[in-house]
Structures are given as structure tokens and as C-alpha cells.
Specification:
Elements lengths: L1 H21 L16 H15 L5 E5 L4 E10 L5 E2 L4 E10 L4 E10 L4 E11 L2 E2 L2 E5 L2 E5 L4
Antiparallel strand pairs: 1-2, 2-4, 3-4, 4-5, 5-6, 6-7, 8-9
Length: about 150
């Protein structure tokens, strides 16, 4: 059973990478495990960082461009979008649902503090599918770039 799950995971990752190479909207996870953090480690660190900041089950995130605070509930962490951005920074894409039913895609940036991953930043990538920035690979690492058009 474990082999089947592993094989299916590899197939899904390969398919996701081939689709994402045409129009990457998020970094891909090919660099995550080089430093010793697994996808499970990164997902757990993201969920723990979110839970630590929740109040009454709601994650509050200030949106500077809109000058408002979102009340959000975690829908899921995109395991296929967990990546390494530089030597100490890791990335995870998450989807939240707002109190008014909107889908808010939040990108979390985690830093390796030498012992564990800690949240460094959280930015709103998309609201209801409309991106505020995109991603581009450069020299083996992913960088944020402006939305074209």
C-alpha cells in the first residue's frame, strides 16, 4: 500500500510540474527536501503557524492594498505547491475561505531558523482566482513577479 501511495504521489507531482511549467502560478516543490525538511514538515509548520495566530478558529490577515482585515478559515494547504525559495526560505500556498464566502489564496513564507521552520511572512496571492503577482523560476529558485496585463 505504501508503494502505491508513493507511486501515485510521484505521478501527481510529475503531472503537476509539467502543467505548471507552461504557466506557473506558484513555485514547484523540487527544492524542498534538499535541506532536510520534508513536505510533511513544511505543511505541519504552516498549519502550526496559522493555528498559533487564530482567534476563535479565525485567522486574521491584514490586506494592505485593500486596507482591510480578512477573517479567514483554512480550507487546505497545497502540498504540490510547497517549495524552497532560497537557502533559508520555504514557501507554501494555502486556500482560505473568508467570512463572506470568497476564496483567498495566501502564500506563506517560512524561514529555517537553524532548528525549525518559523513563519516569516504571509501575502495574499489571489482573491477569487485573480492574482496579485505571479511566480518565475530563476537560477533554481522561485521569485515573485508582477502580473502581466
Amino acid at each position: 500500500m505504501k508503494r502505491v501511495v508513493t507511486l501515485l504521489s510521484v505521478v501527481v507531482l510529475i503531472a503537476a510540474q509539467s502543467v505548471a511549467q507552461e504557466h506557473p502560478e506558484h513555485p514547484q516543490n523540487k527544492k524542498v527536501e534538499k535541506k532536510g525538511y520534508s513536505i510533511d514538515d513544511l505543511e505541519s509548520a504552516i498549519k502550526a503557524a496559522i493555528a498559533a495566530q487564530e482567534k476563535d478558529g479565525v485567522y486574521k490577515l491584514f490586506d494592505k492594498p485593500e486596507n482591510k482585515t480578512w477573517d479567514l478559515k483554512l480550507d487546505h494547504v497545497h502540498r504540490e505547491r510547497l517549495s524552497r525559495l532560497d537557502e533559508k526560505t520555504y514557501f507554501a500556498c494555502t486556500d482560505f475561505k473568508s467570512g463572506d464566502g470568497q476564496t483567498v489564496d495566501v502564500d506563506f513564507f517560512m524561514k529555517d531558523d537553524g532548528n525549525k521552520l518559523v513563519m516569516d511572512d504571509a501575502t495574499i496571492h489571489k482573491v477569487d482566482g485573480k492574482p496579485r503577482y505571479n511566480w518565475e523560476e530563476k537560477d533554481g529558485f522561485w521569485k515573485r513577479v508582477p502580473v502581466n496585463g
